[in-house]
Amino acid sequence: MRIQTDFLVLGSGIAGLTFAIKAARAHTNRKILVLTKTVEGESNTRYAQGGVAAVWDHEKDTFGKHVEDTLDAGDGLCRRDIVEIVVEEGPERVQELIDWGARFDKEKNSDNYDLAREGGHSEHRILHYKDLTGWEMQRSLMEEAKRYPNIEVLEHYFALDIITQHHLGRMVIRVTPDIECYGCYALNKQNGEIDTLLSRVTVVCTGGTGQVYKSTTNPVIATGDGIAMTYRAKGRVENMEFVQFHPTSLYNPAGENPSFLVSEAVRGFGGILKTAEGGEFMHHYDERLSLAPRDIVARAIDSEMKKRGTDCMYLDCRHLDKEGFMAHFPTIYEKCLGLGIDPMKDMIPVVPACHYMCGGILVDEHGRSSIHRMYAAGECSSTGLHGANRLASNSLLEAMVFAHRIFLDTQDKIDHWSFQENVPDWNAEGTTDPKEMVLITQSIKELKEIMSYYVGIVRSNVRLKRALDRLYLLFQETEELYKTTTISPQLMELRNLITIAYLITRSATHRRESRGLHYTTDYPGKLAFEEFSVL
Fold first, then answer.
1. Which residues, 6+ apart, have CB-to-CB distance to 436 below 8 Å?
2. Per-residue pLDDT at 41
3. Tens digit of pLDDT for each residue in 303-334?
4. Strand arrangement of the beta sheet that strand 237-238 belongs to
5. Annotated active-site positions, please?
6. 185, β-bridge pairs
7. Which domains does the chain have, with CATH numbers?
8. DSSP conformation letters of 165-215
9. d(CA 305, CA 248)
10. How far apart are alpha carbons 126 and 72 in whole angstroms?
């Protein structure tokens, strides 16, 4: 089936829906098509616990403080102009979301918002809804989107490839200066057909890459599809070595995917990291103790676990006010109780888990990628805000700011862009159904093992080379399957995850220093100059 739409949005999280709503309001006569590979509400946004950072209390907080906190966390690789844009435009975007129905927590018997503080922040500036902030923001966006009849959400659609001149028979390489996006091919998971979706503008908001690791707080849909498609289409990606591991996912010996996140806000509320014996250890690593930036805390926990030969460290909340803890973190409290842990009596076992991709599709200040007529926003993009390490709760802010900026940039251009009618339909000749799904599922398990053991929190040249060698074998096997096997979501996710794993590992190999989230035992120091790893 061939479908034409004015705006094609890949992903239905905060970035995708924010853009769709703004486009629908401004262009009532144009069609906005939103694709999601499961259901509309399933996205990385939904799983965000802590909140959204914004300068709200101007008596105590300033844009300058938020900018400096972000630059400090980013360890010299943030683009200062982008940081200033996001910080200064952010509060207006948050207010829009409030106007659309988002209910952030307020102080008791007051109209003032209950602003929290998280690691790396010098002030209380985190707006939140209990420990379900992402869920609440997603809910309000979905409700607002329903008001516009020109927004259509296609559920259970899996984007396969970005359509460019390559599909018209033209040679396209990474230095081709005028690559254009005409839409994408997408698998309708309900009937197995591959549709050709043609668009004037394509906005990629496909979320993160967490499922490339064994332990991740990301939902199972976070397989890096948008970044992988962009790289295959010869678009530019950068800074893929900077994978943020959240210091405190809940340690569950039985294992679960995704790992349950114990929000950074718990440490902001007063939780203290300790050993099994009850001793504090963060003073050995940073003067900010348990509220140091995530890269420092995650490496500290990893180091202590390796020194002691233990499977986890602990977060002590026993000294905190029970009523306040339960009011702020009801989901965390109930989850712990379900595992036989009472946070008011027992320390919470925690372990680092893959949480956020700071790199991604290279975009400019308007969200424009290196492929014309294709934009990117949210976790799949690399705007320059996060640098080498994301400051807590800056991601939701970035998604809203760049969704708005993409909307502004496309407002006038949409009238001058037309459909490319000569795009051929997907050719599946010569493929057959897979005889053994174990070939795909086992490769995914193997991939996660490779990345977790060789390209994790601490890296080395030997580990990275071993990872690249094994990834190449997986790549060859999977490409052979791709050429001969009928397309399935599992096969495409494996293919995308291998691409993501390669990009992370290759970028890590190129960075011969330790900076931010990238720490290597072969180059423990920092280079004197700042460098962006663009692939």
1. none
2. 67
3. 999 899 999 999 999 999 999 999 999 999 99
4. 237-238, 360-362, 381-382
5. 294
6. 161, 196
7. 2-241+358-416 (3.50.50.60), 248-353 (3.90.700.10), 438-520 (1.20.58.100)
8. GGGGT----TT-TT-B--EEEEEETTT--EEEEEEEEEEE-----GGGSSS
9. 13
10. 18
